[in-house]
Structure formats: C-alpha cells, structure tokens
Design brief:
This protein is an all-alpha fold and 162 residues long. It is built from six helices and no strands. The relative contact order is 0.19.
C-alpha cells in the first residue's frame, strides 16, 4: 500500500490536488454561471470525499483534502493556469504528470484506481448541472465541451469508459 510518505513534498502536493484539478477541468471546458460553478464544485468535493476504493493512497488524498477544507486551506495551492487560452491543455499536462508520479511510486492497482477516481470526480462535476437551454428546457446533462474534456481525461489517464 502506498501512502503519503512514498512521495516528496512537491510530489505529494501535486497528487493531493489532482482530484480538484480534474473537477476544475470540467468547469474550464464549458464555463457557466455562478450557480453552475457552485454545483460543479460541490459535486467535485463529494467525489473527493468518497473515493471508489479503500486503497491507502486514495483515502490519504481524500482525507487530506477534506481536512484542508475544514481549515479553509486551498487544495489547489501551487497550481496556476499560466495561459487561460490553453487552460485545458495545462490541466491535462498536470494530470498526466501526476499520473506518471503515481505510476512510479504506487502499485499498479493503486495507480489504476487513482486514474479512475480522477475521471469519476470529473464525471461527477459534469453531471452536476444541466447545460444550455432556456429555463431548463432543451438543456443537456453534459455539454459537448464537457464531454470532450471527459474523453481527453480518459485518454490522458488511460481509463476505459465504463
């Protein structure tokens, strides 16, 4: 089992913020209004708070992010979008780098579970609010931009669609 102590401080900071970055990817893929952003953020936090497995790595990341929230600390600290026009690429590059770190330090099973969890958190965010339409009519559950980002996340992290 792989815990926090398997990573350097810099690696751990990147691993710890990865689920939040994955959820943010959806908001960046199709920016909406404040209500939509709020729903996506809450769905991201719910996904982070309930990892799909009891692997030590996933639990350690989840517990630390939740503790940071209680202390009102930003789990995204250290991650900055340098070029807003290339935000999606930067998010994918960050998650690709994190997955490489996890793949090098964790068991293959944990690395697979971690990648799946990142995609699941992003899917939760995408499913949180309907997109488009007028007063709820004609709206889509997941917009085309969000679906593209989900597909790119799956491809980047090597996760098969369920």
């Amino acid at each position: 089992m792989t815990g926090k102590d398997a990573f350097t401080d810099e690696e751990w900071a990147r691993v710890r913020r990865a689920p939040t970055v994955a959820g943010m990817a959806i908001s960046l893929a199709d920016p909406g209004g404040p209500i939509e952003l709020s729903k996506e953020t809450m769905a991201t936090l719910r996904g982070i708070g309930s990892p799909p497995t009891q692997d030590e790595l996933l639990l350690a990341v989840s517990q630390e992010i939740m503790a940071m929230g209680q202390r009102r600390e930003n789990p995204m600290s250290g991650f900055k979008i340098e070029d807003p026009g290339k935000a999606g690429e930067q998010v994918l590059d960050e998650l690709r780098g994190v997955q490489a770190i996890v793949g090098a330090k964790a068991t293959p099973e944990e690395a697979t579970a971690f990648a799946g969890w990142l995609v699941e958190v992003a899917q939760d965010a995408a499913d949180a609010a309907k997109e488009g339409g007028f007063m709820g009519f004609g709206a889509q559950q997941v917009s085309e931009g969000e679906q593209r980002m989900l597909d790119q996340l799956r491809s980047t992290l090597g996760v098969e669609e369920a």
